[in-house]
Amino acid sequence: MESSNDWAEHADAWLARDLALLTEPDGWRAISAPGAIGLWKRRMPDDANDLFRWRLPVVEAPAEVVFEGFVHRILEHHKVWTREFVGGRVVERLSPRARVLQQRFDPGIPGIAPRDVCSLEVLRDVATGTKLVSYRSVDRLPKEPGCEHIDWWGAALCRTLDDGRRSELIYLDRENQGGRLPACFVNLKMPRYLTLQAEAVRGFFADGGPPALRTPRAE
Length: 219
Known about the structure:
Oligomer: single chain
Shape: globular
Number of helices: 4
């Protein structure tokens, strides 16, 4: 988990590292057959939880629309592809391209506590029609009684395809769930979980995504 006080000093390094991990093949092991969804994993030296990457080579909406639903309005739509999601809030806006979010999850499994994640979200336009976001768990909020903090590392890259109507979406996800969910259990369950997640995201943006996502937000 990162410190929220010095985020500006590290944001460029997070974005650069995530861009390389999202786009370069070295170090990744494929765990799905070639098809509409690509899925890979790799070990990282600082945590027993594996880092995963999924890729949708074609999403039926341009990058701007995908980021509107998948990133900017995540609190409105996250339930569509993460059934455990039960709500969240913007904790703080740090700059026009950085904010801190809290998201809450309830797995609905006896003996497994509810969870939340407090994460810093940093955005960058990599090129025309190509958008990048990096996420790091930060220490902005104390742990609530009966709730476990997820230590999360995430990122997403979306590139509008040549036809201008569709895009490619690639996503990083590593989740240290803490509590009574050991890394070996999470690593075992994540491939199926992420495949279902990617399928739900693709379905959400079918036919260009919900019309409301094509309308600029009122800030």
